[in-house]
Amino acid sequence: MTPPAPTPRPGDQLASTVCGTRVVVIRAPADTHPRLTCGGSPLVPAADAPAARPGPAGTTTLIGKRYVDATGTLELLCTASGAGELTCDGAPMTLKAAKPLPASD
Questions:
Q1: CA distances (Å), 4 to each of 8, 24, 34, 36, in order?
Q2: Which of 14, 31, 71, 93 could make an S-S bridge to 86, C-beta 3.0–4.6 Å?
Q3: Where are the beta strands (DSSP E) in the chain?
Q4: In sequence order, which residues have a C-beta less than 8 Å from that of residue 26 and are 6 or more positions away?
Q5: What whole-number distance in Å separates Cα of residue 47 and Cα of residue 42?
Q6: What is the pLDDT of residues 52-65, one digit of tens each?
Q7: Is 38 part of any domain?
Q8: Which positions of the chain have pLDDT values less than 70?
Q9: Can you give the pLDDT at residue 54?
Q10: How far, in Å, CA of 86 to CA of 62, rounded?
Q11: How far are the Cα atoms of 6, 96, 103 from residue 36, in angstroms, in the given order?
Q12: Is 8 among the domain residues?
């Protein structure tokens, strides 16, 4: 039996095992253990990640963009782009929309 994945905490650096995607946890719920994956494989601590390899074709993660889960309680910042799609508990994570700036009229 494998131990459960640790709860992600703000500041944690995670990496994909199937592509070059790397992320930093910006916001995470303290009371849940979300299953974070990229390209169908679990994200691992960046220090334990193998060397980046080409991943599956299709959706890509974009460097400098923030991704949120469906409830908006988990937020990741992409620090290295890759070919895999970020998911949280099986649901695709979406790009976080930028806040509109106030008008300067």
A1: 12, 20, 10, 12
A2: 93
A3: 13-15, 22-27, 36-38, 41-42, 44-45, 66-68, 75-80, 86-88, 91-92, 94-95
A4: 10, 66, 75, 76, 77
A5: 14
A6: 665 555 558 889 99
A7: yes
A8: 1-6, 51-59, 105
A9: 57
A10: 11
A11: 11, 17, 38
A12: no
The answer to the question of residue 100 being in a domain is: no
pLDDT for 46:
87
Amino acid occupying residue 97: A
Residue 42 lies in a domain: yes
Determine the pLDDT at residue 52: 61
Range of the domain at 78: 13-95
With tokens 């131990």, the residue in question is: 3
Query: Which of 36, 49, 13 shows the shortest CA–CA distance to 85?
Result: 36
Specify the DSSP class assigned to residue 97: P
Q: What pLDDT score was predicted for residue 4?
A: 44
What's the structural domain count of the chain? 1
